[in-house]
Design a protein that fits this description.
The complex is a heterodimer of chains A (95) and B (316). Helix content of chain A is 18%, strand content 21%. Chain A is α+β, with helices and mostly antiparallel strands and 95 residues long. Chain B has 316 residues and is an all-alpha fold. Classes of the chains: A alpha+beta (95), B mainly alpha (316). Chain B: This is 1,2-phenylacetyl-CoA epoxidase subunit A.
């Protein structure tokens, strides 16, 4: 078999106006037009979306899970970034 | 950190035990990856081959409504296959290789699809019983340890419920119809009951992979546990329809709070798994033929995409 496999695309769907596009899965298609059509048929058969984005999978760059601990470490010791860090007197309202 | 003294396998198992989902780029034991690729691709193949016995009745559905429903259901099965192939691809399996393994007979699919669909009532039984059994298998898979597989199963399960209900409705309509229609429903149940019980796989004692799969939380229930659940669920539904389950040993056991039932014919089960079922040959042949006859479409789509890309490059 010398036939080339169609490229892989990642599919993102906006479920309704006002919400962001969310990753739903992937599929193969020869080009972007076909990828959008296939995404409609595969991922929105029950009105799950009002808008579709497709991105060829090879264009996605990701953080490395093996380095996740170090990579996200800078945020781990900054509890003061959260409102719950601060004690507000009981008598203070609207804060 | 304390975990740094653990081996990668131990760290992996600790994450599984803490119910942390495993994602595609995470480290995982080779055997976990292999087990998942085998299970997910086999599951995908089952969805795709599962289109054939139902496709058989699309042109002969008794009304336009039933035809529309059946078309939508078969289209869903194709979708389920695609969700699952995509999940397997996140583990490094290639789509072409998975299809090649199906077509060569190296990869398996659910044996239930190697039984023929002889009457319209079989469309009822396939939805009600076969999809009913599939749902019992699939609902726990929504919490399986591998993220992409679990997410695919969530989508599948949402859609599967329609499949089961439409099958039950087909059965109910026949059972409320003429004597001949009810007889057709009973005859179909007689043929599908035992093969459906086989869908849960060999007995726990003969299922060597179960223990490891449970430990990795790929599986959450054993084959025998699911089979028992299925019988408990289906016997009252058959009674509602006025049909008789073809097993004299089916009887409510007050002590166990479950139905007792007879022994599956395991010789038949293994014969079908090994390729000697009624339709094994036809199913594979239909798959291979569809794939080969679609080759020019796949090639043409690539050529068209290349031409469009070249034109766009010139215009730019």
């Amino acid at each position: 078999m010398n036939q080339q496999e169609w490229p892989l695309w990642e599919v993102f769907i906006r479920s309704k106006q006002g919400l962001d596009h969310k990753h739903v899965g992937s599929l193969h298609a020869a080009d972007a037009v076909m990828a959008v059509q296939n995404a409609r048929d595969v991922y929105t058969r029950r009105l799950e979306g009002v808008s579709i984005w497709v991105v060829e999978s090879k264009h996605i760059h990701a953080s490395n899970p093996d380095e996740a601990a170090e990579f996200f470490d800078p945020a781990a010791d900054k509890v003061y970034r959260h409102p719950t860090f601060y004690d507000v007197p009981d008598s203070i309202k609207h804060m | 950190m304390e975990t740094s003294t653990l081996t990668p396998e131990e760290q992996f198992q600790a994450r599984i035990d803490a119910d942390v989902r495993i994602e595609p780029k995470d480290w995982m034991p080779d055997a976990y990856r292999k087990t998942l690729i085998r299970q997910i691709s086999q599951h995908a193949h089952s969805e795709i081959v599962g289109m054939l016995p139902e496709g058989n009745w699309i042109t002969r559905a008794p009304s336009l409504k039933r035809k529309s429903i059946l078309l939508a259901k078969v289209q869903d099965e194709a979708g389920h296959g695609l969700y699952l192939y995509s999940a397997a691809e996140t583990l490094g399996a290639s789509r072409d290789q998975m299809l090649a393994d199906l077509h060569s007979g190296k990869a398996k699919y659910s044996s239930i699809f190697n039984y023929p669909t002889l009457s319209w009532a079989d469309m009822g039984c396939v939805g009600w019983l076969v999809d009913g059994a599939a749902i019992l298998n699939q609902v726990p898979l929504c919490r399986t340890s591998y993220g992409p597989y679990a997410r695919a199963m969530v989508r599948v399960c949402k859609e599967e419920s329609f499949h089961q209900r439409q099958g039950f409705e087909v059965m109910q309509t026949l059972c409320e119809g003429s004597a001949a229609q009810k007889e057709m429903a009973q005859e179909s149940l007689n043929r599908w009951w035992w093969p459906t019980l086989m869908m849960f796989g060999p007995k726990d004692a003969d299922s060597p992979n179960t223990e490891q799969s449970m430990k990795w939380r790929i599986k959450r229930f054993t084959n025998d546990e699911l089979r028992q659940k299925f019988v408990d669920m289906m016997v009252p539904q058959a009674e509602f329809l006025g049909l008789t389950v073809p097993d004299e040993k089916v009887q409510w056991n007050e002590e166990r709070q479950a139905y007792d039932f007879g022994e599956v014919n395991w010789d038949e089960f293994w014969a079908v798994v090994k390729g000697n079922g009624l339709c094994n040959h036809d199913r594979l042949q239909a798959r291979v033929q569809a794939h080969e006859e679609g080759a020019w479409v796949r090639e043409a789509a690539l050529a068209h995409a290349a031409k469009r890309a070249a034109r766009a490059a010139v215009a730019a």
